[in-house]
């Protein structure tokens, strides 16, 4: 893991022990373990972890005016300096408008500004500490700093309503540690904190100009090409030196067996449009992909393209064939990674502790098997579906804008998939109802559903679309929670009146799409930490700020059309000079991860039942062990239960066990530091209800 952590004190003259650390309660001196100091007192900032030299940049105008950028940023030092002077006057948005994926921290006198990203892949956390405010890009270091206990209400909301921002609000799994919403910045003035949004707010007085579809797609192309190019321009990195040959193994197999990525650049090549677009862009743009400084020929080396072939399940033959056709490009070097039952979901439940829980924990071994054959800098197509596709609730947005004719094609596609002539009327009726439902009423309806334990939803593609045509809906794991946990989440939702998260003019479809993107980005962050390969960096250009902005400007009428994502990415490739795509490229895949998840659940049923013999989730009062064990047995026997919900339960149980079994802390100093959740989990009898009562009061 890599993060930055800093501190803002309340008094300018507070001694902070120079470059060593910060003074906390009782005069103790603490500093992060394994850190490098970027600047010192009175508001110090550290970079912690295995940052590369080119990933940490500090530009300073004077002793009290400086900017630190951590990550991949396409701005030159002069651009950073200009941005620093503009930020001194209070402008923030331009700090997030450079290509790449990074976190920017600006210090102007006693004012410190930390900018989060739009997707939520690079979040910012904060907590009160020693009369001031500590902040970081990871929650666990702050939890260690204040010796935080678990926030059981947040864990309940994470299971009951993970896609509803108002259920989670700004909380984290650690009590007292708060999260900055995507698209916001944390501003500290001598320890006092303020959270400010840096994106423009839609006006209710002036209608937004009609978006030009061709111009919007061109903007997506330009931003995506620039996102890939800035990574091509970054210095190449060579992992640790290969210690020598192994009989019967080639160099690539040897590196993978030792957990070492190949040098240079690589990309996923699954056969889908997102990964294929990035692989072809990275291989075709000027920049000699794969070339190492001082190594290879002047013409550059081929881009390493990695395809995963699951031998335990079937149904992706067409995608694999398209991946092979794309890999025939002479600029690509194709590697196919095969995996059987040993890399199915739930196959290996051991792994590192991540900053937060996420459903990707059950898939970590599967992704690690693929990434171990990848490159030191590896492109992935994560986020493309969330930023380009249309959430079903966007149909209500079209009705609100009086664009009914644009509903014809998506509704016809659903009717064709279902085979029923009643589909158009059902979908139109649900979209019309959502368009007329206020946000507050939608959240109250969810709170009522949780209290009454109503989780029935229609099946199939049409059923999923109808269920998504709401402001808020229960999570797939909600049906297995205790009544007390559901009541806690219901009460959290009823506090929305005082702090509505829906801004003026925001539509239900746009709101649901942003929430889905934030959840996906948070889970990708968990995946990066759980499947991390030493000396490797995963790059997700679709989650860069400028790409997200360009995708949000796409007209809704274009988004909702069947095959819109593939058509947009085809246009992106054509603009970059790539026109020879295989037949069927961009076709939706009928094989999903559900088959692999069900197979993995059946194979690992015994170990999962053992995991839930005495689960920590039951000690916390969130579930009953016998209920979860019964659901696991039923799912392993093939009953149609929501597999996503079981993945949420298993991953959260795994995360709790890893958190409580860890040794050490993120901080060092005198006296000896404690760590997060110092007392462990004690049986919770009425604890959730007590917290809910206190919140009402």
Automatic annotation (TrEMBL):
Chain spans, region Disordered: 239-266
Signal peptide from the UniProt entry: none
Source domain of life: Bacteria
A Pfam family the protein falls into: Asn_synthase
Record InterPro entries: Asn_synthase, Ntn_hydrolases_N
Domain (Asparagine synthetase) ranges: 265-657
Name of protein: Asparagine synthetase domain-containing protein
Origin species: Streptomyces graminofaciens
């Amino acid at each position: 893991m890599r993060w930055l952590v800093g501190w803002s004190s309340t008094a300018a003259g507070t001694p902070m022990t120079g470059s060593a650390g910060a003074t906390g309660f009782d005069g103790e001196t603490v500093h992060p373990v394994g850190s490098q100091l970027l600047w010192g007192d009175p508001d110090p900032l550290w970079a912690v972890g295995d940052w590369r030299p080119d990933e940490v940049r500090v530009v300073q105008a004077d002793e009290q005016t400086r900017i630190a950028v951590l990550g991949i940023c396409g701005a030159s030092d002069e651009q950073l300096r200009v941005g620093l002077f503009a930020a001194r006057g209070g402008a923030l948005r331009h700090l997030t408008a450079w290509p790449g994926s990074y976190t920017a921290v600006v210090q102007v006198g006693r004012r410190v500004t930390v900018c989060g990203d739009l997707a939520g892949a690079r979040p910012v956390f904060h907590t009160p500490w020693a009369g001031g405010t500590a902040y970081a890009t990871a929650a666990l270091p702050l939890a260690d700093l204040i010796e935080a206990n678990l926030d059981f209400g947040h864990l309940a909301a994470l299971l009951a309503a993970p896609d509803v921002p108002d259920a989670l609000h700004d909380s984290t799994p650690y009590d007292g540690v708060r999260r900055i919403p995507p698209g916001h910045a944390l501003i500290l003035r001598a320890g006092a904190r303020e959270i400010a949004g840096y994106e423009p707010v839609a006006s209710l007085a002036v209608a937004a100009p009609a978006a030009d579809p061709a111009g919007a797609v061109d903007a997506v192309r330009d931003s995506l090409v620039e996102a890939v190019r800035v990574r091509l321009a970054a210095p190449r990195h060579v992992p640790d030196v290969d210690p020598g040959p192994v009989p019967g193994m080639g160099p690539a197999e040897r590196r993978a067996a030792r957990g070492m990525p190949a040098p240079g650049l690589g990309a996923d090549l699954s056969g889908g449009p997102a990964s294929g677009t990035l692989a072809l862009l990275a291989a075709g743009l000027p920049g000699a992909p794969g070339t190492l400084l001082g190594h290879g020929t002047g013409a550059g080396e081929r881009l390493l393209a990695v395809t995963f072939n699951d031998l335990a399940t079937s149904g992706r033959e067409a995608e694999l064939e398209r991946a092979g056709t794309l890999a025939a490009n002479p600029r690509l070097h194709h590697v196919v990674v095969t995996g059987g039952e040993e890399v199915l979901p739930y196959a290996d439940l051991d792994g590192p502790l991540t900053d937060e829980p996420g459903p990707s924990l059950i898939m970590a071994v599967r992704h690690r098997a693929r990434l171990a054959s990848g490159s030191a800098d590896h492109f992935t197509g994560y986020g493309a579906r969330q930023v380009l596709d249309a959430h079903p609730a966007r149909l209500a947005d079209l009705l609100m804008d009086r664009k009914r004719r644009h509903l014809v094609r998506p509704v016809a596609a659903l009717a064709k998939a279902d085979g029923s002539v009643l589909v158009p009327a059902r979908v139109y009726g649900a979209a019309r109802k959502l368009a007329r439902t206020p946000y507050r009423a939608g959240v109250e309806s969810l709170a009522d559903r949780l209290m009454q334990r109503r989780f029935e939803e229609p099946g199939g593609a049409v059923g999923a679309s109808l269920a998504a045509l709401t402001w808020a809906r229960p999570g797939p794991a909600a049906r297995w929670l205790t009544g007390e946990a559901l009541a806690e989440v219901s009460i959290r939702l009823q506090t929305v009146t005082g702090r509505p998260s829906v801004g003026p003019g925001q539509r239900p479809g746009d709101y649901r799409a942003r929430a889905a993107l934030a959840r996906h980005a948070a889970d990708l962050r968990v995946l990066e930490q759980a499947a991390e390969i030493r000396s490797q960096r995963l790059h997700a250009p679709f989650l860069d700020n400028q790409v997200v902005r360009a995708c949000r400007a796409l007209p809704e009428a274009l988004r909702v059309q069947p095959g819109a994502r593939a058509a947009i990415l085809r246009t992106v490739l054509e603009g970059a000079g790539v026109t020879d795509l295989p037949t069927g490229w961009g076709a939706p895949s009928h094989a999903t991860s559900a088959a692999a998840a069900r197979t993995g659940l059946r194979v690992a049923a015994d170990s999962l039942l053992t995991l839930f013999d005495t689960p920590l989730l039951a000690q916390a009062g969130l579930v009953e062990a016998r209920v979860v064990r019964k659901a696991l047995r039923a799912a392993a026997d093939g009953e149609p239960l929501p597999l996503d919900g079981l993945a949420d339960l298993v991953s959260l149980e795994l995360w709790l066990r890893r958190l409580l079994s860890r040794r050490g802390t993120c901080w060092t100093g005198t006296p000896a530091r404690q760590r997060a959740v110092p007392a462990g989990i004690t049986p919770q009898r009425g604890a959730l209800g007590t917290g809910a009562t206190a919140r009402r009061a």
